[in-house]
Specification:
Chains A, B: Keywords: DNA-binding, Transcription, Transcription regulation. Two copies of one chain form a homodimer. Chain A is mainly alpha-helical. Chain A is 68% helix and 0% strand. Chain A contains eleven helices and no strands. Chains A and B meet through helix 6, helix 9, helix 10 and helix 11 of A and helix 6, helix 9, helix 10 and helix 11 of B. The structure holds a DNA duplex.
DNA sequence: AATTCATGAGTCGGTAACTGTCATTTCGCT
DNA sequence: AGCGAAATGACAGTTACCGACTCATGAATT
């Protein structure tokens, strides 16, 4: 039963490390090429060539061109989910969501810097938001995330997400606002982390008042 | 000039009518095949063959496989937008949105029956909601719609959608809830129009209360 | 240290969604 | 009847992606 050294596959073993390096290199090369030439204009062959592996190998690491594009986002999402599931139980649902998003932005550097520079990730994010095919992919991913988030919220509140629609409704609305913020950011001219973080914060702060019936009467 | 008969291209002329018929036939054939065998399992060649045209001709009518899938949805959306832009000005924004959706569902038969049976459309909708690639496409389309809707809302309220984030925030939240309802419908077992209409209504009715901070205290 | 053995990587060939081009047919109008 | 424009078909090319096979290298065992 695994006598001595090789227990963890994540870090140990020359093989595993080499694999990790190839994967990281593919991500970096892909994002670099995408942001430089555009997504559609970049072929998988090019990405593979940049890392000096065969096209077939690329597809063994990532099941499609889309997947490599979102590899980094996935790490950020993981951070968000982790934060959400550790939020104090007495926090209101919407507040917990907002705090988790803010936390994820706050230490994005720590989450992804080992793989890609934050600056490259921001450029990639902006490219995603301005490429129709990637917007679609991004939205679908958000939708999957929504599912997990709704379950977490339901758990916090002691509800069954399959019976009570409120967690889904809240998360749907939350997500809708997040997307609106992301879009606004990508159409602006300040592509910094701080910028998107503050924009997100301000959009989320509108979520309550905006549903009040009469905008003209209220301020 | 145009001296005598052929003014409108929409209905007049053997040519235009034939074109329309081909287009409709392609839509019907596509939806029929998709719902029977699945989206990915159906090739464009099959669709073209079913209508007895070449693959190239299919691509002259629809720029991609996705487009034919959403051709009918587009008519429903048009109905929704039309209704929204004719809602009384004193209606609250969220109410106007809800009423327009309900109106669109109410006369869906009139909107689409000339092209496809409502029943086929409902089956297609359910297929869309259970095919990842189409979910993505659907979401992206909703996103484009969101843009238009936000502008309409801004106009109603006398705001500039580029300066005031409230229209986008409202529409984002609204859209999020609509998607949640569509998803819940597709996962249920009643694929009727009435069913999705009522589900939508009930989800929308939660949108206010759900943002209240403490779910456990309130009822 | 030598020998298996598992796993990762390359090659080749195929499918299906598109796209450009050009010849052909089909309408619409005079 | 006949001319110009528009619709269609036939064909070739590109790219994402997948399956099957083969080869090489690091890891486990003796």
């Amino acid at each position: 039963m695994t006598p001595s050294t090789p227990r963890e596959s994540a870090l140990c073993g020359l093989r595993a490390r080499k694999k990790q390096r190839t994967r990281d290199a593919l991500i970096r090369a892909a994002l670099e090429l995408f942001t430089a030439q555009g997504y559609e204009a970049t072929t998988v062959d090019e990405i593979a060539a940049a890392v000096d592996v065969s096209q077939r190998t690329f597809f063994r690491y990532f099941s499609n061109k889309e997947e490599v594009t979102f590899a980094v986002q996935e790490m950020v999402e993981a951070r968000f989910l982790d934060e959400l599931s550790h939020r104090p139980a007495d926090e209101a649902p919407l507040t917990a969501l907002r705090s988790s998003v803010m936390a994820a932005w706050d230490d994005i550097a720590a989450s992804i810097e080992p793989i890609v520079p934050v600056e490259l990730h921001m450029r990639a994010y902006q490219m995603i938001e301005s490429t129709p095919a990637l917007i679609a992919a991004h939205l679908r991913r958000s939708c999957d995330l929504e599912e997990e988030v709704a379950r977490l919220i339901a758990r916090r509140e002691g509800l069954d997400a399959d019976l009570d629609p409120r967690p889904r409704v809240l998360v749907g609305a939350f997500n809708g606002v997040m997307r609106a913020a992301g879009k606004a950011w990508s159409e602006g001219d300040d592509f910094t982390v701080t910028s998107i973080r503050e924009l997100t914060r301000s959009y989320l702060d509108h979520i309550g008042p905006v549903l009040d019936d009469n905008w003209r009467a209220v301020r």
